[in-house]
Amino acid sequence: MTTIADLEPLNRAREQRAWYVIDWATSAFQTTVAGVLFAPYLISIAENAAGERGRLHVLGLAIAPGSLPSYVITLSTLMSALFYPLIGAVADRTARKPDLMAGFAWAGALASGLLFFMTGDNWAFGSVMFIVANLCAGCAVVVGDSILPLISTEAERDRVSSVGWAWGYAGGGLLLAVNFLVVSFPGAIGIDKELAVRLSLLSAAVWWAAFIVVPWRGIRRHEPAAVEQVAGGLLARSFGQLWATLRDLRNYPVALTFLVAYLFFNDGIQTVIGSASIYGTEELGFDEGFVLGTYLLVQLVAMLGALAFGRAAARYGAKHVILTGLGGWMAIVTVALIVPKEQVLPFLVLGVAIGIVLGGTQALARSYFSLFIPRGKEAEYFSLYHAMDRGTSWFGTLTFGLVYQLSGSYRPAIFALIVFFVLGGGLLLRVDTARGMREAGNS
């Protein structure tokens, strides 16, 4: 009797290895650019433009240079809220998700590379390029995350997502290590500090564009399944599916509850990540090289944290491990309120604590939500997920910017984010995992 070997597990494993490189590639922008160098560098450019006035005047509004990065990110994420659901609807109707993902990544890498030309007082040019790059990065991540349920079973989901995050921190950390040396010792290669920062921004764009080729080539084109049957061309059908999904979301109350919980606690996480470099340089008095080095330490610890949280989820369940991580975030922003200025050890301890909870909470949130997604609506639901991620995270950045504007200190600004972790954790307690999986028809 002839038996035919089931090659599907091998095919899934091969695609999963290619999928990990999405995080490896994209994290270069998220760490070197969005996480560390862009905000402090934009502030310095904005201060050049403000001059003795001390304020930028935009559309009749006086803006403190120190608040500008928060407002730029806020505008970017508001725009994301409009784009992500449509991109998700388009992605669910095509087998060419890897092509769509790579296209957004290359467009974002181009905009990110143009930050090299942000010099003098042209903060407006740099702000626009960052907004485009950040928007494209989010669209690429929406499509990339929607591939996760197609290349893994429900039982594999936490592991695959956690390993992907670990790859992301490893890739972003490796490039960050190189940029740390360039920014910290620019004289060793015969350049000044400003050029070192600009070259580091450019390196992230090149890294992103080059490595995204691996998942683009290595992931199969899975045919869409169980999409809504609506009339019209691709754009009309995509809007039709979006409307159908939003209308149908009331049939999945557990998924909806998790999305609202994620809106709050992820706003807090994203704002802490995006504001950490500003807090370290402007509030605690460390130079950019030291902050970049601390961010590198966070990357290393976060890689190990993502793997550890993945293993813990297999034993205790993703929901309980995420809640533990949120408790850690509450402790972090509380300690940040009182951490002494220019004291290296407390700042490093704070960085290690961030690293432990950072990778794990984000990786498990992604895989946990995937359990509540009906088949054939992966991209559409992940677009809503990322609308709660980047698309509506302006709550956190706006809160941070306004508290700083009113108080003149980043300490109360970062502590104010505790409310997002409290609200998110409270809502997550109400999520019934087993019921959510039954509603979505998952095993």
Automatic annotation (TrEMBL):
TM regions (residue ranges): 21-43, 63-87, 99-117, 123-144, 165-189, 195-214, 254-278, 290-309, 321-339, 345-369, 390-407, 413-431
UniProt subcellular location: Cell membrane
Domain Major facilitator superfamily (MFS) profile: 254-443
SUPFAM superfamilies in alphabetical order: MFS general substrate transporter (SSF103473)
Membrane-topology descriptor: Multi-pass membrane protein
Keyword check for Transmembrane: yes
Domain of life: Bacteria
Keywords carried by this UniProt record: Membrane, Transmembrane, Transmembrane helix, Transport
Predominant subcellular localization, coarse grouping: membrane
Native organism taxonomy: Bacteria, Bacillati, Actinomycetota, Actinomycetes, Propionibacteriales
Organism: Nocardioides phosphati
Protein's UniProt name: MFS transporter
InterPro entries: Atg22-like, ATG22/LtaA_families, MFS_dom, MFS_trans_sf
Claim: Cytoplasm is one of the keywords in the record: no
